[in-house]
């Protein structure tokens, strides 16, 4: 089956990211496909390029990137939720006159329309909220 | 059949009432994260109407130190079983 996940919890504030990652691994192990993880609300902090957690803790941002590298999972971030929280890719940083960027590929800033498309295009959309 | 997923304990949030009100006669309810506290014998009465369609996630029971303390009416599944429940359902609804 084709899955997408909607993550709405910030890393290290709620269990949502951990639950979603654990679910990702399990669904892939059962032979399903994880098409996309969509980050919304405080979930956009999962895309923070500069996250530097202690080395003995799970690195959630890197874990999402590994999903993309190993399984081709798209990592989409709601642009409206991201910009107002200071999460900008290079293009948006330049557009807003900021000197640095905080989001980089494989995370991509997209609109809510993408989430609607996802909901229509996959077999299962599962929400992990704070 | 819809799989409803609840991550709040009935002792700290009333959202479980909305979840129950939104459930159809065939729907299933999975307790995850703090929600697994609802599987304890002292709290499971809140979910009486769900009958044998009540599930709790083992990994979160273990994380809360509650593994082995569930009420007998609750079906305990691991995360692989969680995925299986989503495969069997037409769709899922998360309550939080």
From TrEMBL, chain A:
A UniProt-annotated Pfam family: DsrE
One GO term describing the cellular component: sulfurtransferase complex
Superkingdom as given in the UniProt entry: Bacteria
GO MF annotation terms: sulfur carrier activity; sulfurtransferase activity
Keyword hit for Transferase: yes
InterPro entries according to UniProt: DsrEFH-like (IPR027396), Sulphur_relay_DsrE/F-like (IPR003787), Sulphur_relay_TusD/DsrE (IPR017463)
Key words of the record: Cytoplasm, Transferase
Chief location of this protein within or outside the cell: cytoplasm
Key word Ribosomal protein present: no
Compartment list: Cytoplasm
BP-aspect Gene Ontology terms: tRNA wobble position uridine thiolation
Family: Belongs to the DsrE/TusD family.
Protein name: Sulfurtransferase complex subunit TusD
Origin species: Billgrantia montanilacus
Automatic annotation (TrEMBL), chain B:
Keywords from the UniProt entry: Transferase
GO molecular function, one term: transferase activity
Record-level GO BP terms: tRNA wobble position uridine thiolation
InterPro entries, sorted: DsrEFH-like (IPR027396), Sulphur_relay_TusB/DsrH (IPR007215)
GO CC, alphabetical: sulfurtransferase complex
Protein name per its UniProtKB record: Sulfurtransferase complex subunit TusB
Organism: Billgrantia montanilacus
């Amino acid at each position: 089956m084709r899955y997408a996940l909607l993550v709405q919890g910030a890393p290290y504030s709620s269990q949502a990211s951990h639950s979603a990652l654990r679910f990702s691994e399990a669904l892939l192990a059962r032979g399903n496909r994880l098409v996309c993880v969509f980050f919304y609300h405080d979930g956009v902090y999962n895309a923070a390029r500069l996250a530097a957690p202690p080395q003995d803790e799970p690195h959630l941002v890197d874990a999402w990137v590994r999903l993309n590298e190993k399984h081709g999972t798209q990592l989409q971030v709601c642009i409206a939720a991201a910009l107002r929280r200071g999460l900008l890719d290079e293009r948006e940083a330049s557009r807003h006159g900021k000197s640095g960027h905080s989001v980089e590929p494989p995370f991509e800033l997209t609109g809510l329309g993408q989430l609607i498309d996802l909901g229509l295009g996959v077999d299962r959309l599962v929400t992990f909220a704070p | 059949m819809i799989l409803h997923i609840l991550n709040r304990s009935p002792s700290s949030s009333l959202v479980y009432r909305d979840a129950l009100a939104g459930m159809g006669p065939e729907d299933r309810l999975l307790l995850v994260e703090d929600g697994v506290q609802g599987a304890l014998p002292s709290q499971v009465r809140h979910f009486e109407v769900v009958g044998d369609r009540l599930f709790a996630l083992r990994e979160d029971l273990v994380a809360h130190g509650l593994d082995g303390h569930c009420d007998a009416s609750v079906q305990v599944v691991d995360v692989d079983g969680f995925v299986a429940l989503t495969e069997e359902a037409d769709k899922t609804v998360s309550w939080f």
